[in-house]
Design goal:
The chain is mainly α and about 70 residues long. Helices cover about 80% and strands about 0% of the residues. It has 4 helices and no strands.
Length: about 70
């Protein structure tokens, strides 16, 4: 059951990305989609109790900076 749920969620996220690409420039959608890595970063820190290292902080800050640059650039 968990595998089916994960598969359905994966299919849903793919569908949403395809839909978004019909409404906005593909480059912007693809870049913004990569911000999902921030959620993985937060999950690893808060739920999996992995250490919050300077490298992780830098990576997260760069992702946020890229999303801000997309918005205002």
């Amino acid at each position: 059951p968990k595998g089916l749920l994960a598969g359905a969620l994966s299919l849903g996220s793919y569908w949403i990305a395809l839909w978004a690409m019909t409404k906005a420039p593909i480059g912007a959608v693809a870049a913004l989609r990569e911000t999902s890595i921030l959620f993985a970063l937060l999950i690893s820190i808060f739920f999996l109790k992995e250490p919050f290292t300077p490298w992780r902080a830098l990576a997260g800050a760069l992702i946020v900076a890229g999303a801000v640059a997309l918005r205002f650039g």
